[in-house]
Amino acid sequence: MSVFTGWRAALRIARRDAMRAKGRSALVVAMIALPVLGVTAADVTYRSVEPTRAEELTASMGSADALFSDPGMGSGAIQQMPDGQSYSPASENSPGPGDEPPIDIRTALPEGAHAISLQSVPATVTTKYGITTADIVEMRTSDPMARGKVTLLRGAFPHGDGEMAATEPFLTKSGLHVGSRTTLHGAERTYTITGVVEQPDDLKAEALYAEPGAVIAPWTNAAEHDKKVLPPNADSKEWLVKGAGGAGVSWSDVLAANARGVLVVSRQVVIDPPPDSEVPMARSMSGRSYGGSEELSAALITVVAMAVLELVLLAGPAFAVGARRSRRQLGLVGTCGGDRRHVRAVVLSGGLVLGGVGAVAGVAAGFALTAVFRPMIEGWAGNRFGSLDVRPSELLIIAVIGLVTGLLAALVPAIVASRQSVLESLSGRRGIRRSSRVLPVLGSITLLIGIAVAVYGGTSGNSTLVAGGSVVAELGLLGCIPVIVGFLGRLGRRLPLSPRMALRDAARNRGRTAPAVAAVMAAVAGSVAIATYMSSGQAESEFEYTASLTPGTVVLTASDGKAVDRLPLARTAVERNLAVTSGHADVGRVWAGSDCNVYYEGENDCGSVELIKPAGKGHSCPLVGKGAKKLAASLSAEDHRKLMRSPACLDELMYASPFIGMADGVVLGDAKFLSTYVKLRDPAAAKALAAGTPVLLNPAYAKNGEVTLKAVHRYSDHDKKNRKLHPGKAETRTDRLKVYQAPEQYATTPGVRMILPLQTAKKLGLHTEMCGSVYAVAHQPTDSEDQRVSAAVDVAGGGIYLQSDRGPSGRQDAILLFLSLFAGVVTLGAAAIATGLAKADAEADLTTLSAVGAPPRVRRTLSGFQCLVVALTGVLLGTAAGLVPAVALRLIDLREAVKTMRAQPMESAYTPIVLPWATIGLLAVVVPLLAGLGAAAFTRSRQTVARRAG
C-alpha cells in the first residue's frame, strides 16, 4: 500500500466516521469555525474601516477634482507637497499672515472650472428643549460635487434661504425632525429642516447644512450691527472645484494656485503624484521616512499564540473522545494489517476533515456576518466603509490556521490511539494509566520561571520579556492543571451525590477535563489581563483628573456686571429644569481698585487680591524650585503621590476656576455656600463666617492661625473719574486676618482657597459683587436640561453661563464590559463542550445509574455540576494567570513614570494596580452559575436503558 493510498483510505474512514457521529463532528467544526469566524470578521472589518487614499479624498471633497483653501499664511506664494499635507512659504522673505483680508480663492481657480463654496461656523440655534450650539455648514448640497461628502438619508436637500438639512446626531440631541423649524440666534432668522444628511467620514457630527449665503451673511451683518465678535473662520471659505471638460486639476494648476498663496489638494495629483524633480518642496522633505513598521508587536504574537493554543485545548478532548468511541473500528484497522502509523493517519484525517470544514465555514460565515452587521459596525466606528475590503491572501492564511489547528488538536489523541493494543481496542477496555509525576514538577518550575521573566521584563522596561514570560507562566500553569483537577476529587467526600460524582468524574477523566479547564483559563486570563491593565489606567486617569467643580454641583456665573441683574431669572430657570436638591447658595467676587470691568480689563487693571503663602516647611512646595529634582530622585512613587496631593503643592497644579473673575481663589460666601459647594457641614465653620471670620480651606496659607491678604489698589485707565481722584502709583495694602481652618481634605475644593465674609471684605475697603449661584443637584444636567436652561437665560438677556463637571471619561467601561462578555461566552462554550464530552464519554455510567434506580433528576444535577466544576476551576486559574502580564506591564508604566517624575518633579508617578472586581465577579460567580444551570436545563432527565451486547 503506497503512502497516498493509505491516506486516501484514512480520509475516507474519517469522513464516514464524521458523518456517523454528526453531533460530535458538528461540535468540533463549531469550535474551529467560531475563532476563524471572529478573525475573518476582524480582518475584513479592519481593512474596510481604514479608508483608502481615494476614499479619504471622496470624504473630504466629494466627487470634485480638487479642494482649494486658504492656508492662512498671508498673500505670498507658498510651496506644498503633492498630497497637500505639508506646505510652507515659498520664500523666507514671504510676508506672513497679517491683518489683510483673506485671499480670494476664485482668482486662483483653473480657467473654465466649476466651483462651489464650503464654509462652516459654530452658531446657536433653537431646539425642541431650548437652545444649543452646532456647526452650520454652507454648501450647495444638491450639487453633484457634494456626493460622497454629504449623503441624503431622507427628505430633501435645502433649496433657498429658508431651509436647512441636519445630521441625525443633531436631531437626536435637539429633539427636532424633518419639517421642524429652528431659529438662528443673532440673525433671528427661522429655517425649516427639509432633510436628514450624514457625513460618511464622521457619522457622529452634529451639524446643519444650508445654501451659500443663507446663514452666515445675515448672521455676520447682525453681529457687526450689534458690535459682537465673530468667530475666526466666519469669512474663510474653501472651494470644491471641477476641472473644465473633465480634465481634472493638474500639477501645473496646483503650482499656479500656490503662486497666489492658495493650497490645493487635487485628486489627480494625490493618486498619481509628479516626480520629486517637479516638486519644489521635495528637496526640504528628502531623507524623511513616512512608512510605518510592519513588525508585529510582542503582544499581538502572544494573542495569536494563545488563541491557537485555546483552540487546540478545546478541540483536543473532542478528538480524544471520538478516538475512544471509535476504538473498535481502529482495532479492526489493526486486524486488517494496519500498523500504528495507519491508526494515527485515521485519527489525524479526522482532524484534517473537520478542520478543513470548520475553516471554510468560519471564513464564509465571518464574511457574511460582517456584511450583515455592516451598518452597526460603521456606527460603532463612526464612518462609512467605502466597500468591504477583502484580501484573499489573508483569508487563505486564516483558513490554513484553522486547518492546522484541527490537525494539532488531533495529534495527541492520534498518538494515544496508536499505542493501544488491538486486544484493548476490540474489547473496549481502557487499561490503567497513571498520571505523570514529572509534568506537574516541570509545570511548577516553568510557572515560576515565567513569572520571574515577566516581572524582570516589567522592572527593566522590556515588553517582549513580559509577553514571553506571561506565555511561559501560562504554559507552566497548564502543566499543573491535571494535578489540580485530580485534587478536586478529594473535595467531594462530604458533598451530596451529584456534586461528589461530578468532582470524582472530573478527577478520574483528567485527559478530558484538564484541556477544557485550560481553554477556559486561556480565555479568562487574556480578558482579566486586559481588564486589569485598563482598570489600573482608568484609576490613574481619575487620580490625575482635576475637577472643575465639586461633585454634585452646578454653578451659574454672570459674565459681566449687567448680567448680574439677570441672575434671579436664571435661578428660576435652573430650579425649574434641573434636579436641584436644595436652594441656591450665592457666591461673589472681591477685588481692589475702582468699579472697573474685571471681566474684560487686562490683568490686574482693576487691582488684585491674593493670599500670600508663608515660607518654610509645610507652606512652600518642595517639588518646586531649587533641590526639587534631587528630592524627587529620592522619593518612591507613593511618597511622591502623597506630597503632590499635600496642601503645600496643590496650588502648583494647573486648574481653571469655575468662578469668573475669581482666579485668585478668594471668594465671597456664607454658611450655605460652605455646605452646598464645599460640602463642609461644620457648625463651627458656619458660626465663624457669621461672625466675620474667613474660612481657610488650604492650611498651607496659614501661620499661627492667621493669613496674609495682599490687596493692590489700582484704578483702570478706562475709569477716568477714579483715575483723576486717585492719581499716581497703585496702593498696596497687606492685612493679617484670623481664620478658621477647615480640615485638610477640603484643600482640593476646585477654585476656592478661602471664603471671605461680605462684612469683612467691606471692612478691608475691598469692592464686592455677588455674581453667581451654586446648586446641589441629584445628577449632572442632560442635553435637554442644558438646552432648556440656556434658552431661559437667553430670553432673559444672556450673559450667564451654567457650568457642570462631567467627570473623567468613562469610555473604557464599555470595553471592559465587552471583554467580560467575550470571556463569559468562551467560558460558557468551553464548559458546555466539556459537559457534552463528559456525557458522551460516560454513557455507560449514566446507564448504570438509571439501572440501579437513581432518580431522573440526578442526570440533570450531575450535568450541571460537571459544567460548574469546569467553568469555576478555569475562571479562578485564568484570573490568577491574567494578573501576571497585567502587573508586569504596570511595572513598565511605573518605571517610565518614575523616570519622568525625576526629570519633572511635578509630574505624577502614581501608577496603581487596580483589580477589575466587576469583571472578576461576573466571571467567577455569574458565568459558572449560568453554565451549570444551562447544562442542567438542557439535559434530559430520563434515558432509555439499552440492552448491553455480549
Automatic annotation (TrEMBL):
Annotated segments matching region Disordered: 71-106
Membrane-traversing stretches: 298-322, 343-373, 393-417, 438-459, 471-492, 513-534, 814-838, 867-892, 912-938
Highest taxon of the lineage: Bacteria
Claim: Signal is one of the keywords in the record: no
Membrane topology: Multi-pass membrane protein
Subcellular locations according to the entry: Cell membrane
Residue ranges annotated for the ABC3 transporter permease C-terminal domain, each copy included: 306-421
Family annotation (Pfam families): FtsX
Swiss-Prot/TrEMBL keywords: Cell membrane, Membrane, Transmembrane, Transmembrane helix
Compositionally skewed regions (Polar residues) per UniProt: 82-94
PANTHER family, per the entry: ABC TRANSPORTER PERMEASE YTRF, MEMBRANE COMPONENT OF TRANSPORTER-RELATED
Family that this chain belongs to: Belongs to the ABC-4 integral membrane protein family.
The name this protein goes by in its record: FtsX-like permease family protein
